[in-house]
Each structure stands twice: as C-alpha cells, then as structure tokens.
Amino acid sequence: MLRLFLPGEYVKSIFHISPKKLKEQGIKGIITDLDNTLVEWDRPNATPQLIEWFKEVKENGMDITIVSNNNEKRVKDFSDPLDIKFIYKARKPMGKAFLKAIKGMNLKKEEVVVIGDQLLTDVLGGNRNGFQTILVVPVASTDGFFTRINRKIERRIMQSLKRKGMIQWEE
Ligand SMILES: [Mg+2]
C-alpha cells in the first residue's frame, strides 16, 4: 500500500527534470500537475523560465498535457496562452483524467511520465494507473484550503516511507 505513494524520482523543481533525459529513457509525453508544480498555486501565468522549459520539451519531440484538479478558469487561463493541452477538475488520484490525457496525446502509459507536487493526488494517481512518476518540491510553501489538509496526511506518509528506508533523498 505504502509503495503506491513512492515516486519514481524526487526532484527540487520542474527545472531539475531534463526533457532530453526523459526522451533518452523512452518517454514521449508528460502529464503534469499545475498548482505548486509548474508555478505557485496563486500565480495566474507561466514564468519566462517555465516557457523555456516547455520549449525544451517540444524540441525533444515530447507532448505535454496539464492535468489539474483545479477549475476550468484557472487551468484554461494558464494553459491557453501556452498552447498546451489541459484537463481541469481531473479528480486525481482517480485515473480517468490520466487515461483521457494519454488518449489525447495518442501515447501508451509506458511512454508517459506523471509529474506533480502531491503524494495523495499526483503520485498515487500516477502509480496506481501504471505510469512513471516524478515528485517535485512544491513551488510555494503555502497551499489552497483542501491541499493543506492533504499535506498533513502527506507528512505522515513521508515519515513512514523514511522509517522503512524506502526513500533516501535529502530534505
Ligand atoms: Mg499541485
């Protein structure tokens, strides 16, 4: 059970994920969370650095879909100017939105990595639906209301993973 919360990788930020390396690993598509993964949950648009990262993703021939549990306005207003596919109200960790996303990119789940900042939605959802997963440290140290509740549970899971020696990364 605990294993389902274990990310394949844990990195400090999205910018520590190399699109070139993913491509070398056979990855052809990225499913990424939005809030506190790509930008702070209360920042409406992409930063110049993030726009560069998306460019790198595309230059490496990879497709990308933003899959967010947030509402249509938030996700559409962020994604549309970038010309990136998106799914809102995704209800992660439920798998339906992930499956819709890979269908939209015309890829198999083995070819897609799920990136996000939450164990309870992104990592659990990715793992139990058969995707590779990468956990990132949240961009902001604050969260929206529901996420704050999830974080409490998340801290306990993290402690268990550490106690069992399942994770070794530095804080
Ligand atoms: Mg998030």
Automatic annotation (TrEMBL):
SUPFAM superfamilies named in the record: HAD-like
InterPro entries linked to this entry: HAD-like_sf, HAD-SF_hydro_IA, HAD-SF_hydro_IIIA, HAD_sf, PGPP1/Gep4
CDD domains for this protein: HAD_BsYqeG-like
Pfam families per UniProt: Hydrolase_3 (PF08282), Hydrolase_like (PF13242)
Signal peptide residue numbers: none
Domain of life assignment: Bacteria
Alphabetized Gene3D superfamilies for the sequence: HAD superfamily/HAD-like (3.40.50.1000)
PANTHER family: 4-NITROPHENYLPHOSPHATASE-RELATED (PTHR19288), PHOSPHATIDYLGLYCEROPHOSPHATASE GEP4, MITOCHONDRIAL (PTHR19288:SF25)
Protein name: HAD superfamily phosphatase (TIGR01668 family)
Annotated organism of origin: Metabacillus niabensis
